[in-house]
Amino acid sequence: xxxxxxxxxxxxxxxxxxxxxxxxxTEPGAARAAAQRIGGDFWAVKxxxxxxxxxxxxxxxxxxxLDEVANLAKSMLGSRLVxxxxxxxxxxxxxxxxxxxxxxxxxxxxxIVIDRSTAQLTALASPRGGAEVEHLAVALPESxxxxxxxxxxxxxxxxxxxxxxxxxLTSAQAETFNxxxxxxxxxxLDLDASLLEINPLAVTADGALQCLDIKMGFDDNGLYxxxxxxxxxxxxxxPDRLEREAHGFNxxxxxxxxxxxxxxxxxxLATIDLLKLHGGEPANFLDLPPVATRPHVAAAFRQxxxxxxxxxxxxxxxxxxxxxxxxxAEGLITASRDTAITVPLIIRFTGTSKNHAIVLLNxxxxxxxxxxxxxxxxxxxxxxxRGGRQWQR
Length: 393
What we know:
The chain has three domains: about 80 residues, ATP-grasp fold, A domain (Dna Ligase, domain 1, 2-Layer Sandwich), CATH 3.30.1490.20; about 130 residues, D-amino Acid Aminotransferase, Chain A, domain 1, CATH 3.30.470; about 150 residues, Rossmann fold, CATH 3.40.50.261. By secondary structure, the protein is α+β, with helices and mostly antiparallel strands. The model has no long low-confidence stretch (mean pLDDT about 90). It starts with a helix and ends in a 7-residue tail after the last helix. Strands 7, 8, 9, 10, 11 and 12 form a six-stranded antiparallel beta sheet that branches. The longest helix has 20 residues. Helix 2 packs antiparallel against helix 3 and helix 5 packs across helix 6.
């Protein structure tokens, strides 16, 4: 579960981390009043959506008068912000965050994550922060330093010194950074976080450190221990979550154009790998549970078709356990009755009730192309996504 920037800053304030004064508002007049209360020479007006790269897409702007604050808030509120992480549909801006502006000398990057390759809690730091940090980390891997952190409170001096040195901080700045590191570490452990990122951690013109943007995510499996965190969930940012939870499938949006409906997480990952191997780009990860029923399948299929970027759908189903191939077929047919299917449908069935499932689909009138193995499924799906006369419906 992700939360908004303003919520993350409120949390870190409770852990002794200093953040710029700010307020989240939902209308232009309140934005102006917030800026007036905050005071100063200029302010940042930030769209509050669960996506990065907001600044490059017009979701973070500076205002140098109270009227400009109100006008920027008016232009953002109700608009749809499209960034590298939202997809073409974007996310509607329901609130903006107005905070004190600071002249920035340097932008740094700091994060605490769980390193899946080592199963260790890890701090990452780079003296080259800002919107391009991910690209810089690839181009200049030596710019990103990692340090393993303990799973209990208290950070070894060697680790904190290494991070501060890598960030090229003065002794005074390093002292402030150690407070940020300690507070972020304690918050991460206390709240079952899965990500805590401060980018930029800025060195201001007067040499101070400021946490100008903060992103936090939490482990869904730990939310039962975190009722206060659960209350921070914004349903407007995850409109499909309730349906996904009600129907028991795991879904992650990706940036491609081939929808994937697959039985089982391992098979779903293998399907994605095969699509990539054939030159395609998957639009999602979707894992149907072994006890999926027809409504589960129909809801999952509608979820995939709701993405306007999808140009074809690949169904990879292994019948077994409680979920047989005919159940998958019935779910597809059910969804097709209330959802227009305007893209090619490539289906590979194997296992229990495979033949019955194909008969059901043929009798339903639902247009589809059958693949007989994994390789054929991937090649047909990629060809369909690229288009061509043979795929026109």
